Amino acid sequence: MQSLWKILTVAPLFLLLSLQSSASPAYSDLSRPSYSNGHTCVGCVLVVSVIEQLAQVHNSTVHASMERLCSYLPEKLFLKTTCYLVIDKFGSDIIKLLSADMNADVVCHTLEFCKQNTGQPLCHLYPLPKETWKFTLEKARRIVKKSPILRYSRSGSDICSLPILAKICQKIKSAIEQSVPFKDVDSDKYSVFPTLRGYHWRGRDCNDSDESVYPGRRPDNWDVHQDSNCNGIWGIDPKDGIPYEKKFCEGSQPRGIILLGDSAGAHFHISPEWITASQMSLNSFINLPTALTDELDWPQLSGVTGFLDSTVGIEEKSIYLRLWKRNHCNHRDYQNISRNGASSRNLKKFIESLSRNKMLDYPAIVIYAMIGNDVCNGKSDPVPAMTTPEKLYSNIMQTLKHLNSHLPDGSHVILYGLPDGTFLWDNLHNRYHPLGQLNKDVTYAHLYSFLNCLQVSPCHGWMSSNKTLRTLTSERAEQLSNTLKKIAASEKFTNFDLFYMDFAFHEIIQEWQKRGGQPWQLIEPVDGFHPNERKSVLLKGMLMTSQTLDNQEWTQLTSWVKGNLTCDSRTREWLCCCLRIVSGRRCSSSGPKSWERRIHSTPRLNRCLETKAGTEPLRSMHPWGAQGGRGVGKLIPQTLWGLLRHRPKGVSFSSIFAKCLSLNEEHMWMTVQCCVLLGSVTLPLFLK
């Protein structure tokens, strides 16, 4: 996935090759020198395509379209200046070639930003010219034969080789590779700067000159004198002399959220406006500098650690915001330790950037979500490079041991399975890519083929016309998911509980279709690979918080519950009690008498449900028993057993469970019971 980051950073500067060495793909192969220019080739084709289409959309000259493109770019990061330098140096040849009806592929091969070495296939995005490729390329070369551009050495050009920029380039490169903030005065791994691994990625530091002050730590002396954990709560209440931290946070079980992920977790996103000429305007590139300094990721909007409102009006909140909503003492306690191209293989290179002190900090919920790169790579034969189940087991155990040595007692770790990516080709291959929508000439099948040919595809296995290869990739993904599942079921650790979750992608698609959406809308339109931010149901499904029970079905279930609530009837007394409990009322006529004694913990809820004073009938009065059903059902609390046994026609077990997971805070105790019921005590239990 890191290859896409390289392509888009090269694109604005592709002719200067300024960022070609800023990062290497996770699957780089030094034995493939003939494809060392792959990212530059893609960047060149992308930019030349935009220039050509801008001229077409605005009915202008090529020179005017280049000027227009540069005028759209912001001054930050010298993007506008660099663009004009590109025009000055290479514009004349680009104008000549485009004016001669040469497409972007021909232009970039002529200028040698794309190369076809002997014995290698021809890599092209657009349909081949009507005349033979060799004849067309020779014709193009004659047009620019006397150009000084062809004498320009591209082999070692790198803006970071300039002495004045060498040190800062090295520091930025180190920050990206190690996943630590570029600006961190006290070296506590937290920053007051947003990008370059700053507080877009982890909680904002509130004192960058004191390494003992950072988000997620237990308060120092109840934060009487300073805000040691950066949650905004400190000082003493003058009315009673009690520290605010003690008054608001003691006993509330604060905990942080940490994501170990790849580009999907980092929320990789390329705006379609950046490459779509018909949508391009002065406002299109406002966020480009921020995106580039965040590696084209948007962790501040991610489904796990996002803390800003969505740019497209999504109402669903991230796990961090849900934690914060339930307990404001969790303010700023989030870490997104994700990287483009990350996998179980290379996580050890940057897991040290995780900040948690087992003695000084609060427990944390850690989500391990490497959902692609153990089966995804860009090699011509991707299967041998995929992680084997045996290697995955070794990598995961190494990661879990590291977590056990750093996480405070009482933490939780969730291993997330891999999806079935055959969805990509099946739903996108015959659709037009944004670059092909204007002239109906580039589909996602063309894009996938182009990237695979250059060996820079984020996932050759799934982004391929070869059905056998796609099937093999999915089979390996399933094997790896099963390995994660076995680890979660068999391994125990002293400082955290371990759980597993499936990536229920097909269920997510079905839910999206129920809402009137099309499956292809769930994927980023530019790269044709990553989850799309606009499709909130995908993010919620990834985190097991999607509500697969639609409003109509839930109304049906609610009506059925109310219709069967005859509290005088012993056969429905348990249901009446259940509704009272989740509504915050007393358990029974002989139970707690006031709101102050309402149910606040799972053990107290169980005691309430098992009270013989009218809340739980004796075993003999129900065919399925006082403790639930027969056999395994005996382990299920009767309240929920009855709810499932007597569910209305058309309401599935999974629907009820999904609804339980989506219940709000006041229904959390019912949620806990639902989770116990299905043996998946996961996030809802942690968040109570």
From TrEMBL:
Record localization: Cytoplasmic vesicle; Secreted
What are the recorded GO MF terms, alphabetically?
A: acyloxyacyl hydrolase activity; calcium ion binding
Q: What is this protein called?
A: Acyloxyacyl hydrolase
One family name in Pfam for this protein: Lipase_GDSL
EC number(s) recorded for this UniProt protein: 3.1.1.77
PROSITE patterns xref list:
SAP_B
- What range does the record give for the signal peptide? 1-23
State the species of origin. Mandrillus leucophaeus
Alphabetic keyword roster:
Calcium, Cytoplasmic vesicle, Disulfide bond, Glycoprotein, Hydrolase, Lipid metabolism, Metal-binding, Secreted, Signal, Zymogen
Organism classification:
Eukaryota, Metazoa, Chordata, Craniata, Vertebrata
Q: Where is the Saposin B-type domain?
A: 37-118
GO terms, biological process: fatty acid metabolic process; lipopolysaccharide catabolic process; negative regulation of inflammatory response
Q: How does it assemble?
A: Heterodimer of the large and small subunits; disulfide-linked.
Q: Does the keyword rRNA-binding apply?
A: no
CDD domains the UniProt entry points to: acyloxyacyl_hydrolase_like
Where does this chain mainly localize?
A: cytoplasm
Primary gene name:
AOAH
| Cellular compartments per GO CC | cytoplasmic vesicle; extracellular region
Entry cofactors: Ca(2+)
Q: Which reaction does it catalyse?
A: a 3-(acyloxy)acyl derivative of bacterial toxin + H2O = a 3-hydroxyacyl derivative of bacterial toxin + a fatty acid + H(+)
